[in-house]
Amino acid sequence: MTISGKHLAILAGIYAILAPIPLWLGEYFIHVLNISFYYVVMAASWNLIAGYTGQFSLAHHAFAAMGGYTSALLVIHFNIPILLGIPLGGLLAGAVGFFLGTLCLKMRALYLGLATWAFAESFRITLSMGYKLTRGDLGLSTPTLLDTGQAFHYYYVFLLLAIISLYIMYRIICSRIGYYMRSIRDDEEAALSMGVNTVKWKRFVFVISSFFAGIAGAFYGHYIGLLSPVSVDFNEMAILIIMVITGGLRTFAGPIIGAVFIELLSEVLREYGEIRMVLFALMVIILMRVNRDGIVGLGRNVLPKIKTALMRNGVGPR
Amino acid sequence: MADSGIKLLETENLTKRFGGLTAIDDLSLSIQEGEIRGIIGPNGSGKTTLMNLISGLYKATSGAIYLDGNRIDQLKPNVRTSKGIIRTFQIPKVFRDMTVLENMLVPALSDSQGDRYKQRVEIVDQAQELLQFVQLSHMENRSAKTLSGGQNQLLQIARGFMIKPLRIYLMDEPFAGVNPQIKSVIMESIKEMNREKGITFIVVSHEMPSIRRLCDTVTVIHEGRCIAEGTLEKVAHVPAVIDAYIGG
Ligand SMILES: Nc1ncnc2c1ncn2[C@@H]1O[C@H](COP(=O)(O)OP(=O)(O)OP(=O)(O)O)[C@@H](O)[C@H]1O
Ligand SMILES: [Mg+2]
What we know:
CATH class of chain B: Alpha Beta
Largest sheet of chain B: 6 strands, mixed
Low-confidence stretches of chain B: none
Order of helices and strands of chain B: EEEHEEHEHHHEHEHEEHH
Strand content of chain A: under 5%
Number of strands of chain B: 10
Number of helices of chain A: 14
Low-confidence stretches of chain A: none
Oligomer: heterodimer
Order of helices and strands of chain A: HHHHHHEHHHHEHHHH
Strand order of the largest sheet of chain B: 6-7-8-3-9-10
Number of strands of chain A: 2
Distance between the termini of chain B: 30 Å
Bound molecules: adenosine-5'-triphosphate, magnesium ion
Largest interface: A-B, 21 and 29 residues
């Protein structure tokens, strides 16, 4: 993959626009933004596999935990640098993604969902049972990436993580591979007959999306300083689904908008606790009925209408 | 007559069983390069199963398939595509949530093509030319799910023509449920691609008038076996064929 000067300029521009934001915000709110960047990477990488390829995996949160635990344990027991542990966490998650993907190759939607969910559950139970290594439900204290505990400094780590990850995913979607993914989603037999090596590319997507989840999970662990099996609760997966659907499944901007929106909203509604999930679930159901393409689709439908309405009233440009 | 040309595709004692049901039964076929072969037979006689075996979506229970004398029956479907075997589906399969143009790009960008196409622009040019050929140009940027049944048929046919080299094109009921105008577009594209590019066709169809206009030789399949072969006029008088169609 080569990166053109123009792309580099755009990425630098995005960074430059987003970089000053924490200057105006308090420590807690910056922390919320950091977490939403983490979710942006998680939601976007799940969208690769579920939205673009049609493989409705329910193990994405497990891959994040896998990356987190791998990196943390390597750093704790082998004393390797954190910045080496993180990519190793991503690689292990990618490798396990390869095996899970291979296992699920022949499975259709519902079965794939069930198998990946069962995988995630087993992983969660393994984490809590293997307390000698993982400290089980007590949680594993994880060395932090930076010496400071300040969210302000981590903001730039997570901002870069999000920008770089999203850019790579963007390039994948725009490449030939993006065509393979969407053709597999729309009709696997037709894709195969048109010469697409569906086995290879389904595996590839499993690997790459798990890799990103693993990387994101590892950064998360080394930021929060604590990992626990709770992060593999199905609730975590549900949140990702809610984010992607709210923002717009199958669109590039959808998971980004959805992740930030839902993360902020759940902060605002924090005092309502678990009831938030009910609210989000309702929102998803309504969106599925009314507008399948989420906020992005809403924008696409509504903006032109507003524009024509404005023009008709002589407000807008002629 | 059948032995004079070069044999492009052959099946040898091909058999496919689904549990106790034998859908293709010891079938030996031989298709010559440049031929437009018709395959007819009553419902459930095994025509689609034969297409699935040749294109590789099904694995044969026994028997062999040869392309240019080389065995291909162990190859994966996408590898067979790269060898120039392409197909359409009885119920048209298009990529619903991709645009008409994007549908056309998938085969050209696929693994099967390696670097047979030099650049994206070349691919897009070729796709647009073919869309013009099947009169779908005006739909180019529409999502495929907005097409009518007939237009879906046109799209899946045109999409197959994107594959290079295209040796043999299997079409499963291309004329079913399409209006007369689309039917004639399909007829013309088969004839022209056969004449200009030397592409070999196997056309499965119930439409006898279309088969008569397109094919010199037809193969009649009944219960997975070949019961007659020859010109449509000739096979129409074979007693076994009459029995099969009347429900013998
Ligand atoms: N995947 C499958 N599993 C089990 N049986 C099958 C399968 N595919 C086809 N069959 C059976 O094999 C036989 C041949 O079916 P096939 O679809 O090849 O017939 P056809 O000649 O294409 O019929 P039609 O004219 O209706 O398209 C039928 O009895 C069918 O039920
Ligand atoms: Mg059929």
